Amino acid sequence: MPRISAASNAAQRADTQHRILTAFGELLFTHGLPGLTMTDVARHARIGRTAVYNYYADIEELLIAYALEETERFLLDLRASLDSLANPVERLALYVRAQVEDLSRRHLPPGPAMGAVLSPASFAKLADHVGELSVLLQGILRDGMSQRYLPEGDISHLAQLIHGTLSSSAARGDGAGQDAGAEARIARTVRFIQLGAGARFDDAGRPVRLSA
Which H helix or E strand runs over 66? Predict the structure, then answer.
């Protein structure tokens, strides 16, 4: 009988864990969180229920693992996309669009609503990780203000207002689907936040610096 190497065993564990998280994410999107069980996840992943429990103690632990992995992936992709843009107002638009689309796609209770789903300890763990998004947004706003594309203001407070708007937009389903109506709603959300932050545009829709 061939021996199973440590490397192949680790790869198998990683593959099983990936299947569990993928199945969980798909079920979140199609059915939502209420009533979702570990048995549902195991059946969808086509593995035994005991195998799921070998990785995650319960649905809450599975939810936090999924959310952390998705947030990390989202941050990596978002940073790469933002690096391709120089204008802070355009970077703000990209940030807003990406957030609305991602929050809607993941079908997670956005923002503070997660506190109703997770225990205080788990919510705090996720909040620490998601805090990186706030740091990223505040950097965009800071650049906009220093380059005079946005008026001076309380950056932390403005970031909180923007994230609150994004959570409401995702909760309404503004990023759901690929139809023209969904795209128009996302575009309205982007422009609403840009204008709310104080950005101004020329007749061609390009960001302009504010008057001294």
Answer: helix 59-82
